[in-house]
Structure formats: structure tokens, C-alpha cells
């Protein structure tokens, strides 16, 4: 692996890390363009200087007791950002007048961590009432949870405001499906300003994830997937490794609807490259996991990452998380600062 360091105009450091034939550019933490530009490091330094410490200390303490919460908070942040941007709309409850919220959509039925975010928000509210948004609490908590289990950390500029609308139908339409092909995934990510490489690296979060047998039953029982082609560009993902599939049917998924499987068996509480190794061995559980090897460039990036020190993956994952955390954010006078993350403030 060749690595060089130089400086861009304006003094922003840039590391160019070569993974096989692929070059990944890791930029500094500056966020540009529209509302993103209004996010900044230290946003609460004067208005609530203890905010980030409060979030970090509580999350680290809780993850220390229940390590699986790291994956839960990361997934909660991810699902939030894909619908109306990172505005904490995933935290809102459905209203009594028939307004079904995001959290009631099928893809969100297995989300966890709502209570933890409520508790952290309560601590922050006690210190600084009406100052820190639920969206910022969630973004910070996801970062701190990953770092707490030994994963990467990344810079989280703050200043997000909370949305006042949450729609189950929008969640159904916007959250990536585990059955999507690579072109479908890439297209959906592009609508959020996320690149193909963001898709590849954000998928790496599955290293600490679990999957319900029902979410990949077609691959397990029906041989879902195709053989692929020599160039790796067939959009039909390869089937699950036969021996692995047989083992899952015998031990974990005896029926199509029940059971849970670690997406990175053997190290699902360690943030590492095990998930990518599994994908390359055709042991990625979801069709969307297996789809990563159907794109030649994505496969080259994964192969290069697996052959490189873990720090390389940490860098690119952190960069993509920073990009995700700035998707369609509300800042300035847009949105509100919710006092209770589950309900909008009175007057909306």
C-alpha cells in the first residue's frame, strides 16, 4: 500500500491511500454547501459547553454494559438520515389522528435505542434546556457508541435542528431495502448525495450488525442470487456459500421467519474487516450485502481494504459517516429544538 500526505489549497490535509487499483481520498472535516456549511465543530461551546461530554459519558457507560447497543444506535442514525435528512424524525411517535410515523414502517420495526436517546436528551435538557437538538444527540451518540467498542471515531460538526414531520410512507420509500441490487442501492444513495464508495464503506457497519432470518430467507431456502460473471458486473448477486447456508438452516434459521444471525460471525462485537471478508467469500447474508461484489469497482475497493491495515477502513468509514451525518440537515431557523424527542413542541 502506498500512502502520501500533502496539503490542499487552504491548508486542509488530505491523505491519499491506495488500495490495489483504487484510490480513496480522505479529506479533512470541512463540510461545504447549503445547510451543511452551517454545521460546525463546537457549535455548543458557548450555549451548552457540557453537551458533548454528557452524551459521550452516558453512551460509553451504557455500551460498556451492553455492547450491542453500538450497532443499534448506528442503525438508528442511519435510518434517520435517509428520510428527510438527519433531523431526528425517526424518533417521533405517530400522532393520534392517523399520522403514522417513520418508526412504524416495516424497516424500522426492529430498531432499538429510542429509550437511550431519550435518557441522554433528558440529561442534556437538565443542563441546557431547549438548546441541543435531538438530531445532534443522535449523531453524537452513534459516533461515541462505535468508538466505545473500539471502532473509529469521526468529527461530528453540530448545529442540526429537529424536523416536525415523520411519515411511515416516506420511510418505506426511502430506506434501502435488503433485497436491492447494486445499481438500485447506488441510485438511492446518489439521491442523498452519497457516492458509490459511501455505499461500500457504510455497508461496513454490518461488521457489528445482526440480521433476522426472514430478511434473507429467499437466499437461504430458494438459492436466491446468480453466479455473477467474470467482470463482476452482473446485477444478480451470487448465492450464499452452500456450506454456510446449510449450517444456517441447521443451526440458526430452522424456519424462514425466526432466528437472528450475526453478520460478522465470530467478531460481531468488534469493529473490523470480518464483514468484508465474509462478503468476498459469498457469506454476506442479505442480497444487498452480496450485491457489493457484483460491481467491479466496489469489489476492488473491498479487496484492497481487506489487504490493508484496519486503520484504512476506519478512515474511510469515518469519512462516509461524516458525509451521511450532513445529509439534508436542517439548520438556522429551519425546524425546531425538540424538548422531548418523541413529540414535536407545542405550536406545530
TrEMBL record:
It catalyses: 2 a phenolic donor + H2O2 = 2 a phenolic radical donor + 2 H2O. Ca(2+) 1 binds at residues 80, 83, 85, 87, 89, 102. The record marks 75 as: Transition state stabilizer. Residues 38-345 form the Plant heme peroxidase family profile domain. It comes from the Eukaryota. Disulfide bonds join 48-128, 81-86, 134-341, 213-253. Ca(2+) 2 binds at residues 207, 264, 272. One of its GO terms (cellular component) is extracellular region. Keywords: Calcium, Disulfide bond, Glycoprotein, Heme, Hydrogen peroxide, Iron, Metal-binding, Oxidoreductase, Peroxidase, Pyrrolidone carboxylic acid, Secreted, Signal. It is found in: Secreted. Pfam families: peroxidase. InterPro entries: Haem_peroxidase, Haem_peroxidase_sf, Peroxidase_pln, Peroxidases_heam-ligand_BS, Secretory_peroxidase. Its cofactor is Ca(2+); heme b. The active site is at residue 79. Heme b binds at residue 206. Its EC number is 1.11.1.7. GO terms for biological process: hydrogen peroxide catabolic process; response to oxidative stress. GO terms for molecular function: heme binding; lactoperoxidase activity; metal ion binding. It is an enzyme of class 1 (oxidoreductase). Substrate binds at residue 176. Binds 2 calcium ions per subunit. Removal of H(2)O(2), oxidation of toxic reductants, biosynthesis and degradation of lignin, suberization, auxin catabolism, response to environmental stresses such as wounding, pathogen attack and oxidative stress. These functions might be dependent on each isozyme/isoform in each plant tissue. Belongs to the peroxidase family. Ascorbate peroxidase subfamily. Belongs to the peroxidase family. Classical plant (class III) peroxidase subfamily. PANTHER family: PEROXIDASE 25-RELATED. This is Peroxidase. It comes from Oryza glaberrima. The gene is LOC127763880.
